[in-house]
Amino acid sequence: MEVMAPITVNALNGSSVRLPCTFNSCYKVENKQFSLNWTYQVCDNCTEELFLQFRLKIMNKQLDRFGDRVQFTGNPSKYDVSFTLRDVQLEDEGTYNCYVLNPPDRNRGHGRIQLKVLTEEPPKRDSTVAVIVGASVGGFLAVVILVLVIVKCVRRKKQQRLNTDDQKTEEEGKTDGEGNPDEGTK
Fold first, then answer.
1. How far separated are the first and last CA of the chain, in Å rounded?
2. Is the N-terminal amide bond of 103 cis, ω within 30° of 0?
3. Taking a C-beta distance cutoff of 8 angstroms, is the pair 131, 116 a contact?
4. Which regions span the lipid bilayer (predicted)?
5. How confident is the model at residue 35 (pLDDT cuts 50, 70, 90)?
6. 10 Å Cβ neighbour count for 72?
7. What is the pLDDT of residues 42-62, one digit of tens each?
8. Residue-wise pLDDT tens digits, 84-96
């Protein structure tokens, strides 16, 4: 069994957030055997607090921490065991663990989500500077490539002229390459 959950979920203080957890299983979900536990940890070394459980049906463990703000929004028969936390508070920040067991799968799957509670929305990213820098670098590289191509063409033409001049000189004077008449033409 494989459980899929995002590593981190960001939520704005006072908003609602869905903590997604899905799983793959080779077997159909049978409510009589299927089990699910959602736990919460304030820190990595802290004790896990069980707040949501599925044994034949969803059982919401009324932790003082969450009150009635937890709502199961998944569908186990569709391999979704997500829940929604309403009115997110700064104290809700921490680690949420999703444990799934779907017999006859032998292994219990585990998903782990780190919830980060934001006090204000992150600023919209303005990519104008990135576009300007990218265009400038791209334009500069295009000019460099163009100059290199022109230099190569000029050198090739120059070399062709030198080769043509050498051939003309050899044909006209039939020299030995040092300007002396070739012995075969005397």
1. 95
2. no
3. no
4. 129-151
5. very high
6. 19
7. 998 999 999 999 887 777 776
8. 999 999 999 999 9
pTM check: above 0.85: no
Three-class DSSP category at 150: helix
Q: How many helices (H) and strands (E) does the chain have?
A: 1, 11
The overall average pLDDT reported for the chain is 85
| Domain definitions of the chain by residue range | 2-118
| Strand partners of residue 83 | 19, 72
Is it true that the peptide bond before 76 is cis, omega within 30 degrees of 0? no
> Both tokens of residue 114?
């780190």
Helix (H) / strand (E) element for 94: namely strand 94-101
The token duo for 183 is 């012995």
Closest CA to 101 of 91, 93, 89, 109: 109
Residue 112 confidence (pLDDT) above 90: yes
The CATH number assigned to the domain with range 2-118 reads: 2.60.40.10
